[in-house]
Amino acid sequence: MSSQSQPRTLFAGIGSPHGDDRIGWLVADALREFARTDIEIREAATPSDLLDWLEGIDRLIVCDACTSAPSTTSTDHALHRWEWPTQEVATLRSANSHAFGLPQVLQLAERLGTLPPVVIVFGVAAESFDAFAELSPNLAAAQDAIVQRIAIDVGPVPTGRRNEANANNGRWEPALRGEASRNA
Q: Which of 46, 54, 72, 157 could make an SS bond with 114 (beta carbons 3.0 to 4.6 A apart)?
């Protein structure tokens, strides 16, 4: 990376349409509403999708549902934050049936020389994985707080961009469920 080029950030929400496993996709959707335009935001069906997207990326931020683990944040009991490499992520069990899990994908990318220098992993403790179900009540209640916490790592919105963050003096404050559609 030259000193004149802007570091490239990729946020990847990993998920499926099954209950709490949707959280990675929902966070990606929410971040699109206010994230900086220089941040690439993608939704992955499996962690191995990341391997195709890492070229030229300097910072990778991933969000995926996981089985419960001790909390690493003080903002929400359902959210865990790790910086790779760490033993917690290396042994992380994904909440869904990914054949090739996130730890294995990160290890492979490292061996291939494509892993960005900065990798942040958010694991969201999940409860329900019923096919095509909505989020569990606990995770639905925590969703906005989870998005706000992840947004801290994604980065602030540049001045002059019109969106919710600028309307709130650079802070993003999510609408209550259903409020955005009622006020639109």
A: 54
Q: Report the pLDDT averaged over residues 4-13.
A: 84
Report pTM. Answer: 0.76
Omega within 30 of 0 (cis) for the link into 7: no
In this structure, whether the domain defined by 9-183 belongs to CATH 3.40.50.1450 is answered with: yes
Report yes or no: 153 and 119 within 8 Å, Cβ to Cβ: no
Q: What is the pLDDT confidence band of residue 51, given thresholds at 50, 70 and 90?
A: very high
Q: Give the amino acid at 4.
A: Q
CA distance 40 to 11: 6
What count of other Cβ atoms lies within 10 Å of the Cβ of residue 125?
22
- The whole-number average pLDDT for the span 144-165 is 66
10 Å CB burial of residue 4 (0-12, 13-18, 19+) is exposed
The answer to whether 80 and 139 have CB atoms below 8 angstroms apart is no
User: 């070229």: which residue's tokens?
Assistant: 55
Helix (H, G, I), strand (E, B) or coil at 20: helix
Output the pLDDT for position 11.
96
Cβ proximity of 169 and 145 under 8 Å = no
* Helices within the chain (DSSP H only): 23-32, 87-90, 102-112, 137-154, 164-167, 179-183
pLDDT in tens, 61-90: 999 988 765 444 444 557 889 999 887 775
